[in-house]
Design brief:
single chain; 297 residues; alpha/beta; TIM Barrel; five-stranded parallel sheet; 10 helices; 9 strands
């Protein structure tokens, strides 16, 4: 049977123990996707039935996220003093640099997320994929003063070589694999690459757009996930990510429910019950632990 060969199976109930900073047991982060889509071509999430290109309805709905939704979410994050892991299409440097600057000014982490979400990464020849990773690394470093530590592929589309190419390009972690609630090392031909948990269910794209969940239920889902994982984390350290897209949760009626969901998490942070952080800080912490403390690869 074919196997990826990146890590071995290890049940979560049979692992070593460790703690997050200040003794916290649950690490929580926001994975906030800011993306740009080509006009009249390529891929893109859809609000309504796809029309022949240029498909103005769906393009304009996605563009609302960059013009309005992301800014409203920024106001909410500022209100609750929440950091964000910003999954960044580098096309935004040409399209709306003010938006990228606003996140950088907050001290948020910039994470590589391709040039545009109009195209998938996984079908590229290896040399072109390597060039894409290098371009995004260099563009973010040029703007932010440091290279991104992490990567999420557009549409979470990988080739068989993607983890190898990420490690070779100097990335420290990937968010592409949603197979665990703890960080773990993956084998690559250039050494270890961390896999930091990124949610595919606690994620507005598959839930709200795919399964047609309403904003109230999505907020309840965040709170249910938080309460259950906080109870589980008494026994072992866990990671809870929340994946958001501003053209979805930045709509006013959804933003109201997102505030309802995030406010209790911010309050738990203020009480010292959780570590509200970014994927890069999670990676940095587990990388500092003794090798036997985290899940084996």
């Amino acid at each position: 049977m074919a196997c990826h060969g990146r890590f071995a199976y290890q049940p979560i109930t049979g692992r070593g123990d460790y703690a997050w900073p200040n003794g916290a047991r649950l690490a929580v982060y926001l994975g906030f996707n800011i993306e740009h889509f080509a006009f009249g071509e390529g891929l893109g999430a859809e609000l309504g039935p796809a029309s022949p290109h240029p498909d103005v309805l769906n393009y304009a709905w996605r563009e609302y996220g960059n013009r309005v939704g992301a800014w409203r979410c920024l106001e909410l994050f500022d209100e609750l003093r929440l950091p964000a892991g910003v999954l960044l299409n580098t096309a935004l440097y040409e399209h709306c640099p003010e938006l990228v600057d606003a996140f950088l000014a907050r001290g948020d982490e910039l994470i590589g997320h391709g040039y545009s979400n109009a195209h998938r990464q996984g079908g590229l020849p290896e040399a072109e994929e390597s060039a894409l990773l290098a371009h995004c690394r260099d563009r973010i470093r040029q703007h932010a003063g440091q290279a991104p530590a992490g990567w999420l592929s557009p549409w979470i589309s990988e080739s068989r070589a993607t983890p190898d190419l990420l490690a070779e390009a100097g990335y420290r972690y990937t968010l592409n694999w949603c197979h665990d609630d703890q960080p773990m090392r993956m084998r690559t031909r250039a050494g270890d690459l961390w896999a930091i948990p990124y949610p595919q269910e606690l994620n507005d794209i598959p839930m709200i757009m795919g399964r047609k969940m309403d904003a109230r239920d999505f907020a309840d889902m965040i709170l249910d996930q938080f309460e259950e994982m906080r109870a589980q984390a008494v026994r072992q350290p866990l990671v809870m990510g929340i994946a958001l897209h501003p053209y979805i949760v930045g709509q006013p009626y959804r933003l109201r429910h997102l505030r309802r969901a995030l406010a209790p998490l911010a309050a738990a942070r203020d009480r010292g019950e959780i570590w509200f952080t970014t994927p890069g800080e999670i990676c940095r912490h587990v990388d500092s632990l003794p090798s036997g403390a985290v899940a084996a690869r």
